[in-house]
Amino acid sequence: MPPRLPGELTDRITWLVSDYRTLLSCALVCQEWLPASRTALLDCVRLNRKPGYDSFIKDVLGSEHMYPYLRTTRAMWIDQRLARGSLVLTEQPWSYRTIHEFSGHFPKLEHLRLSDIDWNSPKHWQPHPSVHLAIRGFTSLRKLELMWCQLPSWHTLRRLVMALSPSLTFLTLLNVSCPSPHGEAPAFVYCATASLHKFELIGVPSIFSNQGLEPFLRWLSYSCPSNSLRRLVFSEPKLSTEYGGILTRIVPGLVELCIIISSASLRIFPFHELRSLRVLEVGMRGVGSYWKDLSHLLPDIPSRIRSIALHVLFKRRPPDMARDDESLSDCPPIEANGLGLLDPVLQGDNFQSLERVEFKARVIEMVQRKLPSVVSRGIQVAVSLDLSGSFESYAVPFLLDKAAKSVTS
After folding, report:
1. Residue 368: is its pLDDT beyond 50?
2. Is residue 65 part of a domain?
3. Residue 297: which of 355, 253, 257, 238 has the closest Cα?
4. How far is it, in rounded angstroms, from Cα 25 to Cα 17?
5. pTM
């Protein structure tokens, strides 16, 4: 009889495999390898084509033999796009059916990502009025991501959030839009308590922004219990004064904040309400007096910052910079003029607990020269690489969890 490895060891080896095709090969080795291979394959399900989606419904969701494996699925990504970077639908839409067809089949599902779902097109593609009841079948869902989705109303989003409470704690909206409401009751009339602790609202100006979501944000600002929201990623190309008033009610309890806005919008953001903040990341787009503006605004933060990251976001790569060079010199250059204004600011009372300062910069020596007082205190001054220099490159890392395994149909 040939030598055999213990089942616990082969299961562990199979679980460490992250490549989809390799896992398929593992499932075909022998009967003993099949359970662990199926469990790994279905740990994170990713469906991005209609044939694969229909096959999953028929052969996996409808199979009694597969039911035990569906009970272990932790993440699911549904992407209507046919090709990476393509926003044009060339086949009959199918992803709008996901919530109703998958409800109740994934009791351990914690992370659901829906991309490019158009719920605001012809009537037969719109969500059923009971969609917020169907999503309650995802009883363990903690993280919901909606990317490039179009909704018929902001109420659809409000109902989804409330249906998933109290398990839902993390919500990401990337370029989600809906029609602007007219003649509706004020958002605070819809009394409820949302359970969110982490919220990401990200708009990419090269496509379209989060249109029509102001009522939802206003509702959220009244619905989240005081100081319950701990982490906020907020990236909007243009920050209106209306957004500023909404954020004033959202930010007091934040511990972590990442904002990516224009230099002009910095003056609207309510820095003076950040009473619990410990980690701050500020991304500034385009040109402007951002260092001067920051030097005036940072002292207004009434909390002790431990880590701060400041990034200048250029709309396009400088023409003299090579595109294929992945060395340190390929990082976007940092504007040195005015950077020294931050040195005395970072000596203020609210920065006495500062442990780390990070920049997107080409060379660290220039940053250290501009911040001599910070360096003399022994604070870590770091330089991080970014090879594209584009606005979108800063938004994506806050969204994508690359550690999760994916199953591509």
Report:
1. yes
2. no
3. 257
4. 11
5. 0.81
